[in-house]
Amino acid sequence: MHNSERTQLRRKLRAARNALIPTEQQLAAQDIASQLAAVPAVKTAGSLAFYLSNDGEVSLSEFSASLLAGASSPRLALPVLHPFCRGHLLFLHYHQHTAMTENRFGIPEPSLDCTAVVPAHQLDVILMPLVGFDKDGNRLGMGGGFYDRTLANRHNWPASPRLIGIAHDCQQVDALPVAAWDVPLDAIVTPSQIIVPKDS
Predict the structure, then answer these.
(1) What CATH superfamily is the domain 3-195?
(2) Which of 32, 44, 52, 78 is 20 to 30 A from 104, alpha carbon to alpha carbon?
(3) Which Pfam families match (predicted)?
(4) Annotated binding residue at 46?
(5) 127 pairs with which residues across the strands?
(6) Is 154 annotated as a binding residue?
C-alpha cells in the first residue's frame, strides 16, 4: 500500500469514527471500560499509560476514572510530546490534580515535570489510540510515528510493556500493510471484542 493509499484509508477511518454520535461514543467508552477490566494484563498492571481522546477516538475517561476511584489503582501515566527529542513521547505520572496544558495539536497533556517522568520500560501496559487495525495486531496511526519511534527499541529494554490498541469496531480492516518501523500490538480492545494476535 503506497503512502497515498494509507492517507486515503486514514481519511476514511477517521471519518467513520467522527461520524459516531455522542450517545454512540458514550456507549463505546462504557463498553471499553468493561472490556479492559477483563484483560489480564490490565487487571494485574502496577503501572499503566492511557491517552486523552481526540478526533473521534474512543474515550478512556470512564475507564481511568474507575481506576482513580479504586483502592488499588495502578500508577497512571499520560503521553507528552517530548520537548527535546522531536517525534518522540515521554510518559508523565497522572493523578486527579495533575496540572495540564495543551500541546501543539490541541490535546491536553500533563505540564512538563521531570520528577514525574515514568520511563516507558517501567510501564506494564500502554493503551494506544489508533486509526485502523487488523486481526493480526497491525496498527495504523495518525501518521506522526510518535508511538513507533518511542517504542522502537522496546525489545532491548529490561522489560517491555504490553501494547494494547483501543478502537471503535468501525476501525477494523481486513489487512494492513506492515512497514519495517511499525510497532505491532499485543492486543486490540474494541467495544465488542478483545483481539489477541496469534504471535502475542
Answers:
(1) NagB/RpiA/CoA transferase-like (3.40.50.10420)
(2) 32
(3) 5-FTHF_cyc-lig
(4) no
(5) 164
(6) no
